[in-house]
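Raw record, unedited: Glycine/betaine ABC transporter
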Amino acid sequence: MVDFFNWKKVGFLIVLSLSLIVVGCGQESKENAEGGGEDKLNIGEEIDYTITGIEPGAGIAQATDNALTEYDNLAGWEHEKSSTAGMLTSLENAIENEEPIVVTGWSPHYMFAKWDLKYLEDPEGVFGGVEHIATIVRKGLKEDMPEAYTILDRFKWEPEDMESVMLAAQEMEFEDAAKQWVEENQETVSKWTEGVEPVDATPIELVLTPWDTERSSANVAKVVLEQQGYEVKLTPVDPSIMFQAIATGDGDASLAPWMPQTHASFYEEYEGEFEDLGENLVGAKIGLVVPSYMEIDSIEDLEPAE
């Protein structure tokens, strides 16, 4: 009888211990669910409360600076501006080691074809919605170079087209990648050039911003214009200088303005001093980007710096 009661007591203690373990695990899971988990809470600390950016003159750099002001939870965060190449190197290194990182990103861009990335939701709308890339030309271009004007006015392509040129340009020069795209997309190119008469070595200058998206469109336009007999010069500059160059007639055309938000301030500064031919690509986007393995979905998931 004594042995029976002893075993009964031991059994009770075992059941009680297991119950406490289950309750403890349940409480921990609840705390992780409510607080986002240790990984989520430590993201800011692990990356020194720093957003990795690109060149200071980029429209996305200005938007990111605005985000640090608009979002209370980004108080104390820093926006580290460097270069596109520097940002991509940091992103690649983080992904190789499966480490957290927050970068300023945009699409179209080959980074989305190369890595599994996602935009953080932007409830405040600081980075705007879906944008388009426009074509602007200097006043008088239609009269001076009607053939080039017609081609530039017709120049329209898809984000996938631009990304394919950018991706190919990782293995070759941008002009070679553009020539390859033109050769493989003659049906699209013929829509731009149908009925356009060739010219005899007429010079034309295309002004662009120094990023792969704009290098893609500018080089494709260069190849097509050169096939029509133009001598094309490409001039990369910061966005503010790009608008100024077209407004003053120092440059002939640009396929680089991101609208209606990214380059809005530059556009408004020179509005009326150039001709807007409308979008050449629809579906562009900017924002804060993270690797998909990071368990956050919104800018609001980032915690304030301590």
